[in-house]
Design a protein that fits this description.
Elements lengths: L1 H33 L7 H35 L7 H23 L14 H26 L9 H34 L1
Helix pairs in contact: 1-2, 1-4, 2-3, 3-4, 3-5, 4-5
Protein backbone atom coordinates (compact mmCIF):
# COMPACT_ATOMS: atom_id res chain seq x y z
CA UNK A 1 0.00 0.00 0.00
CA UNK A 2 2.89 2.40 0.74
CA UNK A 3 4.07 2.13 -2.86
CA UNK A 4 0.77 3.57 -4.10
CA UNK A 5 1.24 6.63 -1.89
CA UNK A 6 4.87 6.88 -2.96
CA UNK A 7 3.95 6.83 -6.66
CA UNK A 8 1.14 9.34 -6.13
CA UNK A 9 3.50 11.72 -4.30
CA UNK A 10 6.10 11.27 -7.04
CA UNK A 11 3.60 11.97 -9.84
CA UNK A 12 2.26 14.99 -7.94
CA UNK A 13 5.77 16.39 -7.40
CA UNK A 14 6.56 15.85 -11.08
CA UNK A 15 3.30 17.59 -12.03
CA UNK A 16 3.92 20.57 -9.72
CA UNK A 17 7.48 21.03 -11.01
CA UNK A 18 6.26 20.94 -14.61
CA UNK A 19 3.56 23.49 -13.82
CA UNK A 20 5.99 25.85 -12.11
CA UNK A 21 8.50 25.71 -14.97
CA UNK A 22 5.88 25.98 -17.72
CA UNK A 23 4.27 28.98 -16.02
CA UNK A 24 7.63 30.73 -15.57
CA UNK A 25 8.79 30.07 -19.13
CA UNK A 26 5.54 31.22 -20.73
CA UNK A 27 5.34 34.30 -18.51
CA UNK A 28 8.90 35.29 -19.40
CA UNK A 29 8.21 34.73 -23.11
CA UNK A 30 5.17 36.98 -22.81
CA UNK A 31 7.22 39.70 -21.10
CA UNK A 32 9.92 39.50 -23.78
CA UNK A 33 7.37 39.79 -26.58
CA UNK A 34 5.60 42.64 -24.80
CA UNK A 35 8.90 44.52 -24.46
CA UNK A 36 10.44 43.48 -27.80
CA UNK A 37 10.70 47.04 -29.11
CA UNK A 38 11.56 48.72 -25.79
CA UNK A 39 14.84 48.87 -23.89
CA UNK A 40 14.87 46.06 -21.36
CA UNK A 41 14.96 47.35 -17.80
CA UNK A 42 16.81 45.94 -14.82
CA UNK A 43 13.66 44.29 -13.43
CA UNK A 44 12.97 42.36 -16.64
CA UNK A 45 16.60 41.24 -16.90
CA UNK A 46 16.31 39.96 -13.32
CA UNK A 47 13.09 38.12 -14.22
CA UNK A 48 14.83 36.51 -17.21
CA UNK A 49 17.70 35.35 -14.98
CA UNK A 50 15.21 33.99 -12.47
CA UNK A 51 13.32 32.16 -15.24
CA UNK A 52 16.56 30.56 -16.42
CA UNK A 53 17.26 29.36 -12.86
CA UNK A 54 13.72 28.05 -12.41
CA UNK A 55 13.94 26.21 -15.74
CA UNK A 56 17.35 24.72 -14.88
CA UNK A 57 16.39 23.55 -11.40
CA UNK A 58 12.96 22.49 -12.62
CA UNK A 59 14.47 20.42 -15.41
CA UNK A 60 16.83 18.78 -12.91
CA UNK A 61 13.94 18.09 -10.51
CA UNK A 62 11.81 16.77 -13.34
CA UNK A 63 14.67 14.53 -14.47
CA UNK A 64 15.02 13.16 -10.93
CA UNK A 65 11.31 12.53 -10.45
CA UNK A 66 11.01 11.28 -14.03
CA UNK A 67 13.82 8.78 -13.55
CA UNK A 68 12.21 7.64 -10.29
CA UNK A 69 8.88 7.17 -12.09
CA UNK A 70 10.54 5.20 -14.88
CA UNK A 71 12.39 2.97 -12.40
CA UNK A 72 9.15 2.45 -10.48
CA UNK A 73 7.36 1.62 -13.74
CA UNK A 74 10.04 -0.88 -14.78
CA UNK A 75 9.93 -2.57 -11.36
CA UNK A 76 6.14 -2.79 -11.16
CA UNK A 77 4.95 -3.13 -14.76
CA UNK A 78 6.36 -5.67 -17.20
CA UNK A 79 6.78 -4.04 -20.59
CA UNK A 80 6.76 -0.52 -19.12
CA UNK A 81 9.36 0.63 -21.62
CA UNK A 82 7.21 -0.61 -24.53
CA UNK A 83 5.32 2.67 -24.51
CA UNK A 84 6.02 4.84 -27.60
CA UNK A 85 4.76 7.96 -25.80
CA UNK A 86 7.41 7.48 -23.13
CA UNK A 87 10.18 7.42 -25.76
CA UNK A 88 8.90 10.64 -27.33
CA UNK A 89 8.92 12.18 -23.86
CA UNK A 90 12.60 11.17 -23.54
CA UNK A 91 13.25 12.91 -26.88
CA UNK A 92 11.36 15.99 -25.73
CA UNK A 93 13.40 16.15 -22.51
CA UNK A 94 16.61 15.75 -24.55
CA UNK A 95 15.55 18.62 -26.79
CA UNK A 96 14.79 20.75 -23.71
CA UNK A 97 18.22 20.02 -22.25
CA UNK A 98 20.06 20.82 -25.50
CA UNK A 99 17.91 23.88 -26.11
CA UNK A 100 18.56 25.06 -22.55
CA UNK A 101 22.25 25.17 -23.40
CA UNK A 102 21.43 27.37 -26.43
CA UNK A 103 19.19 29.61 -24.32
CA UNK A 104 22.08 30.08 -21.91
CA UNK A 105 24.50 30.94 -24.74
CA UNK A 106 22.13 33.39 -26.43
CA UNK A 107 21.07 35.03 -23.16
CA UNK A 108 24.43 36.80 -22.92
CA UNK A 109 23.15 39.14 -25.65
CA UNK A 110 20.11 40.10 -23.60
CA UNK A 111 21.25 42.81 -21.21
CA UNK A 112 19.84 45.88 -19.56
CA UNK A 113 18.88 48.60 -22.10
CA UNK A 114 18.98 46.05 -24.93
CA UNK A 115 16.24 46.45 -27.52
CA UNK A 116 15.49 43.00 -28.89
CA UNK A 117 14.07 44.44 -32.11
CA UNK A 118 17.45 46.08 -32.80
CA UNK A 119 19.39 42.81 -32.89
CA UNK A 120 20.89 41.83 -36.25
CA UNK A 121 18.46 39.68 -38.19
CA UNK A 122 20.50 36.46 -37.82
CA UNK A 123 20.70 36.79 -34.04
CA UNK A 124 17.01 37.65 -33.72
CA UNK A 125 16.15 34.57 -35.80
CA UNK A 126 18.30 32.37 -33.53
CA UNK A 127 16.69 33.80 -30.40
CA UNK A 128 13.21 33.41 -31.87
CA UNK A 129 13.78 29.78 -32.86
CA UNK A 130 15.38 28.82 -29.54
CA UNK A 131 12.54 30.53 -27.64
CA UNK A 132 9.90 28.81 -29.76
CA UNK A 133 11.50 25.40 -29.27
CA UNK A 134 11.67 26.01 -25.52
CA UNK A 135 8.04 27.03 -25.12
CA UNK A 136 6.71 24.36 -27.49
CA UNK A 137 8.77 21.61 -25.87
CA UNK A 138 7.71 22.53 -22.34
CA UNK A 139 4.06 22.63 -23.45
CA UNK A 140 4.34 19.32 -25.31
CA UNK A 141 6.17 17.60 -22.43
CA UNK A 142 3.34 18.68 -20.11
CA UNK A 143 0.81 17.51 -22.67
CA UNK A 144 2.47 14.09 -22.80
CA UNK A 145 2.27 13.97 -19.01
CA UNK A 146 -1.51 14.19 -19.07
CA UNK A 147 -2.15 12.27 -22.32
CA UNK A 148 -2.63 8.98 -20.46
CA UNK A 149 -4.98 7.72 -23.17
CA UNK A 150 -2.04 7.76 -25.64
CA UNK A 151 -0.13 5.15 -23.60
CA UNK A 152 0.57 2.07 -25.74
CA UNK A 153 -2.15 3.20 -28.17
CA UNK A 154 -0.54 5.69 -30.55
CA UNK A 155 2.51 4.54 -32.50
CA UNK A 156 5.87 6.21 -31.92
CA UNK A 157 5.82 7.90 -35.34
CA UNK A 158 2.45 9.50 -34.67
CA UNK A 159 3.39 10.86 -31.23
CA UNK A 160 6.72 12.10 -32.60
CA UNK A 161 4.84 13.62 -35.54
CA UNK A 162 2.60 15.54 -33.16
CA UNK A 163 5.68 16.88 -31.40
CA UNK A 164 7.22 17.83 -34.74
CA UNK A 165 4.06 19.68 -35.76
CA UNK A 166 3.97 21.57 -32.45
CA UNK A 167 7.63 22.56 -32.93
CA UNK A 168 7.02 23.59 -36.54
CA UNK A 169 3.97 25.68 -35.62
CA UNK A 170 5.86 27.40 -32.80
CA UNK A 171 8.90 28.17 -34.98
CA UNK A 172 6.70 29.48 -37.82
CA UNK A 173 4.74 31.68 -35.41
CA UNK A 174 7.96 33.04 -33.90
CA UNK A 175 9.34 33.78 -37.36
CA UNK A 176 6.17 35.65 -38.32
CA UNK A 177 6.41 37.74 -35.15
CA UNK A 178 10.10 38.34 -35.80
CA UNK A 179 9.44 39.44 -39.41
CA UNK A 180 6.70 41.78 -38.17
CA UNK A 181 9.08 43.47 -35.73
CA UNK A 182 11.83 43.76 -38.38
CA UNK A 183 9.37 45.34 -40.80
CA UNK A 184 8.20 47.79 -38.13
CA UNK A 185 11.79 48.74 -37.37
CA UNK A 186 12.57 49.25 -41.08
CA UNK A 187 9.42 51.35 -41.50
CA UNK A 188 10.38 53.62 -38.61
CA UNK A 189 13.98 53.92 -39.82
CA UNK A 190 13.03 54.55 -43.45
Amino acid sequence: MMEIYFKTALVFTHFILAGIVLTKVLHTDFLLLKNYTSPLDKDLIQQIKQAKQVALWGLLGLAATGIALVVYGILTSPGYLNNPKLWVKFICVGVLAANGFLVHRLARHVQEKTVLADFPYGLSVQISIVGAISSASWIFACWLGIARSWNRVLPFSEVLGHYGLVLLAAVCASMLVNIRFVQQRQYHEG
